[in-house]
Design a protein that fits this description.
alpha/beta; 6-stranded mixed β-sheet; 10 strands; 12 helices; 2-enoyl-CoA Hydratase, Chain A, domain 1; 4-stranded mixed β-sheet; about 15% strand; globular
């Protein structure tokens, strides 16, 4: 462990800035497995929830691979039974989420524009920002034990990125099912719905991810980028102003408080409330 790795990761960017293969967070492990990079989300004490610095670290890693002639692509995965559950609502505050810097550090557009292929190896729980990372990757492969969820509306967030992407990937009917109910999908359901590309036994996850990345990296780079441009145009751009407004609104403040206090938000009719988080 280097001295840099000992620095704390915080939501307000007091951690050292990214440099070289260091992502700016000790909870993101960037390693080289020639000719590919592996980015591992390694924060088991918080179930791999991402702080602002970690979100930015994912974005930085994508650009690092794009600009490194020794690397042909990257695999993103997590540790234990969690890929990424989204942002760390337990640590961040509503103000830190509403801050425009929060939107600026999100890696989703960077993934959609990546020059080198990115494969997400979904080793477990995948929801919120984690599922969006998987959807914005070029290819995603899920372990059989992985589960998927879009809980943003339960937290008071009008996630217009999901509202833009999901209908184009799974259709409007399934989008409403995912977003309005917060239902959990199994890995096999996620493949059937078109959220992820493949599902494999847990023990085969990383080998399959490496195989898929090898195939993707073997395609002609310029031609691949033209195809990626056409696909990105089909998905289109989300309402960034509307989402920023939602993160400043009272529903998100109440959603954050309810999450932190492990209770149902006040907007849930009293007769429908049940103990614990939604």
């Amino acid at each position: 462990m280097t001295d840099t790795d000992k620095w704390p990761d915080t939501a307000d960017f007091t951690a050292p800035p990214p440099s070289g293969d260091y992502t700016g967070s000790p909870f993101l492990k960037f390693t080289r497995h020639a000719p590919f990079a592996h980015l591992v989300v390694d924060r088991p004490e918080a179930r791999n929830a991402l702080t602002n610095a970690m979100y930015f670290g994912v974005r930085y890693a994508v650009k690092r691979v794009d600009n490194d002639s020794d690397l042909a692509g990257m695999i993103i995965t997590g540790v234990g039974d969690v890929f990424i559950p989204g942002g760390d609502l337990g640590r961040n505050t509503p103000d830190s989420w509403a801050d425009l810097s929060m939107i600026d550090v999100l890696p989703f557009d960077t993934l959609r524009m990546s020059v080198k292929p990115v494969v997400s190896a979904l080793n477990g729980i995948c929801q919120g920002g984690g599922l969006m990372i998987a959807m914005c990757s070029d290819i995603s492969v899920a372990a059989e034990s992985a589960t998927f969820r879009v809980p943003e509306l339960l937290r008071g967030i009008a996630d217009l990125y999901y509202a833009q992407m999901l209908p184009r990937m799974v259709g409007p009917v399934r989008t409403k099912d995912l977003m309005y109910t917060g239902r959990v999908l199994t890995a096999h359901e996620a493949v059937e719905w078109g959220l992820v590309n493949r599902v494999v036994p847990d023990a085969e996850l990383m080998d399959t991810a490496d195989e898929l990345l090898t195939r993707a990296a073997s395609t002609a780079p310029h031609a691949r980028l033209q195809v990626k441009r056409a696909l990105d145009s089909y998905i289109g751009l989300q309402d960034r102003i509307g989402m920023a407004e939602s993160l400043r609104g009272p529903e998100f403040v109440e959603g954050w408080k309810a999450f932190s206090e492990r209770r149902a938000p006040e907007w849930v009719p009293e007769e429908l409330r049940r103990p614990g988080r939604l």
